[in-house]
Hints:
Layout (H helix, E strand, L loop, with lengths): L1 H29 L4 H4 L7 H10 L8 H13 L12 H36 L4 H15 L2 H19 L20 H38 L2 H8 L4 H31 L1 H6 L5 H10 L3 H29 L6
Amino acid sequence: MAAYLLRRMINYLFLVIIAASVTYLLAAMVFHPENNWLAKHPQPSAEAIKAQLLARNEWRGTPIWTRYANWVDGVLHGNLGIEIGGNSVWQDMVRRVGVSTRLLVLATIIGSVGGVIVGVWGAVRQYKLFDRVSTSASLVVFAMPVFTLAILLQMFAVWFNNASNTHFLDYVNEVGNANGSFWTWPDLVDRFQHLILPTASVSLGSIAFFSRYQRATMLDVMGSDFLRTARAKGLTKNQAIFKHGARTAIIPVATLLSYNAVLLFIGAVFTEIIFTWHGMGEWFIESIGFQDVNSTAAVGIFTAILVLVAGLISEILTVALDPRVRV
């Protein structure tokens, strides 16, 4: 198993290098970061703009392969460059990764586990009340864009707070007091209140998405020969389904779960923008909007690493659930 995972990790590592390099080269060729200074009033001198771009390794007069070599050298030394605002790309990325982690870890767990449970139970209770209700609810969530769901949750928060005369559901920013402590009880409660709605926004979509896949794979497994054999050996229906059927039905969904859960870190763009969480998704949009080569390349590196992590998690889950893969 270890040798198999090592081979897969080496393959993914090469893919990370290729993806990060392609992201930087495309951004360096297409973006015109000098427009950020040309749009200012009064406009800086050409020499001042050139000096700013040279400091960021974004001067288009420098050959692109020279810029790429400088960027690679910086990455190998832990320096991702300077963003348009003048801050360190590395420091900004670390801060935003922390924000996205606090937002998405709980939502990912709820969405993944909830989706699998709803899908399995919906298949077991096929065409019963739970199955019909969960199917209808999933279709409603599917038909609703993410930003619509987020805005509806904000409207619900306004109504709930007014009706209860409280501020329990906060829907703007990550925390009420940005200068407050992190580990004191009032601050933890405050962060939890700010976390409820964006977590619901992300996890509801994940539950709807995964439950449909899990229900379909579970229905295929329930008609298989090995479940009938398990029943013939004396297992009850529920024992056969949950001991043997559910494990087999999760295998096709495991890869989807892994990639979707990990890549949410740069995919929750609307949720971060609407609820004003300054995470990686928002940073990605801002980087493209400002034509920031270094920040866009940093997002590319981070995304490529996420794909590597998701691939490894997928391989581990597949090997754990299906021993046949090991040989």
